[in-house]
Amino acid sequence: MEQSPDEIRATYAVLLIADFTSIIGCIIVLVGFWRLKLLRNHVTKVISCFCLTSICKDVPSTLLTLTQAAVYNRGFPCYFYSIVITYGSLSCWLWTLCLAISIFRLIVKREPEPQRYEKWYYLASWGLPIISTIIMLAKNTVDYVGNWCWIKPEYVVYRFMLFYVPFFIIFGTSAILVGITCHYTYQVIHNGVSDNKDRHVKYQFKLVNYIIVFLICWVFAVVNRIVNGLGYYPFATNLLHTYLSVSHGFFASMVFVYNNPLMWRYFGAKVIRCFTLFGFCTETAKRLEKNKNNNNPSPYSSSRGGSNKTGTSNHNGATIDSTPGYDSSYELDSSSIPYEYSIQSGNIPNNSENQNNIQNESINNNVNNNNSNEHSQNENIGSSNI
């Protein structure tokens, strides 16, 4: 079905906005991963690989959209556009699945060295999409389809078998793994290991928000292709499909920034510094400058020989700065992984005796590390950047 000129212009504008915002969001994550050593662990490496893949997909897509090369030349530019979309999207989905697997193995399976699976993540996420891409090209199914080059509408079976069936498999597996992980954290609360239920609920939300973003960004693509297969081409679903599917990298990167206060403190300090040149926001700038590198140590670092911490530590193991201006309210933020989920804790206790054993063991560890002179019976909390 042919689009009207107004619909074409609207779709074109939305496509460019989605591409540029996705590129910017992923660059922010990669810069944070590069500049902030406290963010470097196995989970953030997986997220960074997702963002790197998204950039490699979005940059050529943006250039092809701006130049309209695929519109005027249905040869190599059009085939290249279809390769970028198919391979890049499938790879990003697989990195999301790898993230769900990593969180599951870390929290539920208490994997001491999750990074040893990274080579398989690379192989799967950057290798498996080649299969669908080769089949798509070999069957000569590619043509310009209105917004980009992809599988032609008459090849509905190929669209679903090569693209959307893998989507359902990847999303379903990711949702199951996250569901099991959330059930595990619920057991921790239900068995009375922790009294701080609000923190646990926030942490559960941080486990699922990547999967929520994954679903929201692609559900309209599935709906739109089903409707197209029935012979209908509504502009609204096409526009939502265009914006949300292309913006997956942007929304995933914003989730990462939300989950890691260290990120927005760091970039906030950079932005506010511009206002201090004119005498504004000086106190806020000083506060952010003091706390921009403050974060709780990651439990992943315990298996790799430390987390490059600086400063002193409180009884919760958080790295703190004793100089004036340090804000202790940042010691335990909502991105912390509860101690009961970390690789350092034992099985879920079923009674108060086991709970006391965990607390006593935690206290003894604090004494041995000279982290505190006052023994506390509060729960120990580590941290994870998710």
TrEMBL record:
The chain crosses the membrane at residues 12-34, 79-108, 120-138, 158-186, 207-227, 239-258. Keywords: G-protein coupled receptor, Membrane, Receptor, Transducer, Transmembrane, Transmembrane helix. Residues 310-326 have a biased composition (Polar residues). GO terms for cellular component: plasma membrane. Pfam families: Dicty_CAR. PROSITE patterns: G_PROTEIN_RECEP_F2_4. The keyword Transmembrane helix applies. Residues 8-260 form the G-protein coupled receptors family 2 profile domain. Residues 293-309, 347-386 have a biased composition (Low complexity). It is a multi-pass membrane protein. Its main location: membrane. It is found in: Membrane. GO terms for molecular function: cAMP binding; G protein-coupled receptor activity. The keyword rRNA-binding does not apply. GO terms for biological process: adenylate cyclase-activating G protein-coupled receptor signaling pathway; cell surface receptor signaling pathway. Residues 290-326, 341-386 are annotated as: Disordered. Belongs to the G-protein coupled receptor 5 family. This is cAMP receptor 1. It comes from Raperostelium minutum.
